[in-house]
């Protein structure tokens, strides 16, 4: 599973608006955003990587004016972490990822008072994005570039769903990436604080995963941001698997 997840990350980055092939690495980046979480690199599974490759990778990031940063499954490049640390990179986080298959998925009933929709207009996309932004500590707004990014995800076969209260208030959202190596990454699950602990996050994650399965993927994977979200994901059928590393040169 580690190799498949890593291949799916390579495919995900290859779907960015711009890509850079840097030896054994692929950099996926978006000229409309300087977010370090959107533009980053990952190694191709089982590639032989040398310190010179890391030096060239840093130079490639400097050429596009982005922070050198990687996300990857550690077992797929066992020597890479040492090369990066020797080059001055620092570890941001180390997370275990979870995987769900059609056989393990449990879809709960959507909580009373809420609905989950697939946005078909930019107004609906912006509403879901604004709720997600607030859920992650930002402002209750969404930029045109953010909306375009979500629309592009849908156009390329990814899944985007939005949660709304019955009065029309947008309360959260999330997505699954376009399929890669038969997998999709479920990410960005966010529910505004006022509406948490009502089952919305679990229902939203399960609905996104189920829709991705109906569109042909073999498995979905994600990472939990804390113990609360970990429990939510395990309840709907996600099972802990391998380790991913986040590392950057600031």
Automatic annotation (TrEMBL):
PROSITE patterns, per this entry?
Answer: GNAT
Query: What are the protein's UniProt keywords?
Result: Transferase
What Pfam families does the database record attribute to this sequence? Answer: Acetyltransf_1
Origin: domain of life: Bacteria
- Describe the location of the N-acetyltransferase domain by residue ranges: 115-250
The keyword Transferase is annotated on this UniProt entry = yes
GO molecular function terms listed in the Swiss-Prot or TrEMBL record: acyltransferase activity, transferring groups other than amino-acyl groups
State the protein's name. Answer: Putative GNAT family acetyltransferase
Q: Which organism is it from?
A: Micromonospora pisi
């Amino acid at each position: 599973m580690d190799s498949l997840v890593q291949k799916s990350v390579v495919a995900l980055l290859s779907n960015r608006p711009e890509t850079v092939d840097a030896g054994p690495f692929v950099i996926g980046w978006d000229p409309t955003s300087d977010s370090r979480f959107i533009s980053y690199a990952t190694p191709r599974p089982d590639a032989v990587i040398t310190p010179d490759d890391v030096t060239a990778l840093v130079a490639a990031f400097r050429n596009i004016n982005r922070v050198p940063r990687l996300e990857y499954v550690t077992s797929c490049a066992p020597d890479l972490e040492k090369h990066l640390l020797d080059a001055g990179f620092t570890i941001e986080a180390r997370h275990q990822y979870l995987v769900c298959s059609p056989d393990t998925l449990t879809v709960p009933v959507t909580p009373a008072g809420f609905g989950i929709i697939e946005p078909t207009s930019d107004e609906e996309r912006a509403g879901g994005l604004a709720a997600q932004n607030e859920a992650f500590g930002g402002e209750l707004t969404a930029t045109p570039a953010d909306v375009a990014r979500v629309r592009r995800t849908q156009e390329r076969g990814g899944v985007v769903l939005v949660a709304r209260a019955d009065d029309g208030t947008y309360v959260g959202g999330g997505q699954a990436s376009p399929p890669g190596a038969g997998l999709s990454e479920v990410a960005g699950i966010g529910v505004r604080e006022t509406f948490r602990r009502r089952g919305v996050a679990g229902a939203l994650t399960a609905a996104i995963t189920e829709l991705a399965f109906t569109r042909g993927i073999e498995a979905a994977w994600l990472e939990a941001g804390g113990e609360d979200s970990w429990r939510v994901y395990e309840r709907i059928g996600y099972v802990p698997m391998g380790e991913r590393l986040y590392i950057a040169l600031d």
